């Protein structure tokens, strides 16, 4: 019997339940997938808390990697025995499971050089970084970015990718230990936001000019300081709300602070086109396979320990990527 983490009501980590589930045969357009590793992402907590509403009861998780066991009618992009990974949104919800049925469309075949554990720890983060670095802004060598949560899974990949592009990275972290991790992965400057005034320090580091782009995954607590860190006509990229949603604001503030640009992108809109998804996947997997970008799998959990994993994630005890290993 397969097992899965499910939740029957929204709330804190304690609502997660480890249950037996029935997995049948794949229908048209589906595959039956046996997971080897599952990604743990902060977005998972948004489903659990109710910020992203879904019908109850519901599965948990949107990213995993494993082996195709069987395919349904009409499936041509994968075959039994293929090693695959996936990420998505509601259409892939239910990744916290040993085995499952899933639409074939989101599946990406894994290169031989990428293990299932690595894939589960990088597919969502890697594709997110790929569109941030390749679609959001036309970066030029010498540009400077401010990167919040620089020691997190996305942060460590962005730092390394930015270094490949010749960018200067200013990263923010909550502890000195995380600062060392960020520096080791390409951050040129590190700001401890629990101690320093981020915007003031950014101005000092950029001779008063500010940065070209801010990647802000924190949200409510950092929104204003992120705007204040931008140069004239700079770009604010809201990529998450770990501290809570950004309160409503008057857009006039963007003009007052230097004719700033602001965007709130979603990964789903950058991987909706299969050709674009494959292009972005090929680029990030290529960097990882060649050793140009390292994926740090710093936390491994058993699936039945999902409650503890969510507690660790929300208390900011984690660095890099976290996975459940089956």
TrEMBL record:
SUPFAM superfamilies: GroES-like, NAD(P)-binding Rossmann-fold domains. PROSITE patterns: QOR_ZETA_CRYSTAL (PS01162). Residues 11-324 form the Enoyl reductase (ER) domain. Gene3D superfamilies: Medium-chain alcohol dehydrogenases, catalytic domain (3.90.180.10), NAD(P)-binding Rossmann-like Domain (3.40.50.720). Keywords: NADP, Oxidoreductase. This is Quinone oxidoreductase.
